[in-house]
Amino acid sequence: MPRIMTYNVHRCVGVDRKLDVDRIAAVIAEYEPDVVALQELDVHRARTRGVDQAHAIAEQLEMTFHFNAAMRVEGELYGDAILTSRPERLIKAGPLPTISGVPGLEPRGALWLAIEFDGVEVNVLNTHLGLVPREQRLQAAALTGKEWLGDPRCVDPVILVGDFNATAVTRPYQQLLTALSDGQKAEGLPRAIPTFPSSFPVLRIDHVFVSSRVRVTRVQTPMFPLARVASDHLPLVIDFEIRAVQSRAVPSAA
Length: 254
Prior knowledge:
Blueprint: E1 3-8, H1 21-29, E2 35-43, H2 53-61, E3 64-73, E4 76-84, E5 88-96, E6 108-117, E7 120-128, H3 133-144, E8 158-163, H4 171-176, E9 181-182, E10 206-210, E11 214-220, H5 225-230, E12 236-242
Parallel strand pairs: 1-2, 7-8
Antiparallel strand pairs: 1-12, 2-4, 3-4, 5-6, 6-7, 8-10, 9-10, 11-12
C-alpha cells in the first residue's frame, strides 16, 4: 500500500540544538515511505554548514527530489521539498502570498508533483503556511484557488500535505476543507494525531488533505527516541489507497 510522510525537519536541527542531517534521514527510513514531503530545509546556508539538505537526505534514501526555495538570500536557500522513489514529474513550484508591514515574516511557498502509483498519477502538493492568521488565510485561499488546487490540471486523486501552522478550529483549515477532506478524519481511523512539539505533542498542525479518490487507511506518528529529538515536529505517516473511477451507468434506450 502506498505511503506518504510529511515532516517539518527544522533545518535538521533537533530539540537538543544539534545539527544532524543523518538522523533526519534515519527517522524517515524507518518507515520506508514512497513519498516524503519536507518543510524547513536549508540549502547552502552558512548557519547549517553549507549543506544541501534536500540533496543529502534524498541521496541517503535513494530518492529523486524537487526543492522549492521559499526564501533566497544570494546563494543561500530555504524552503520545502518532495522526495520519492516513484516515477514523477514536476508540475509547479512557487510562492504563496504574504502580508506587508509585519516584521519577521518568512516567505512561504508550495510544490506540486504528479507521482505515479501503479499506473495512476496522483497530484501531490507540499506546503508550509505562515504564522500570522491573516497571512494563513491568504495562503489557504491561494492554495484553493485557480493557481493550485483549482488548476484544471489538478484532478482527482490529490493529496495536499505540510505544516499548516493551523489547528482544526481555525479559518485557514476550514478554507482548505472547501476543496479537500481531512485525511485523518476518514471513516474507521482513530483520533487524529498531534505532531508538535515533538517532545510532548499536543498540537495538530501538520495535516493531510485528500480528494475523493484517495482513501486514507492508516495514520501514525513515530514516538521512538530518535524521532522525538531529531526535529521540533514529529513526522506524520499516511498509508492510503486510490479508489477506482466510478463509471456512470448509461441509460438504456426507450
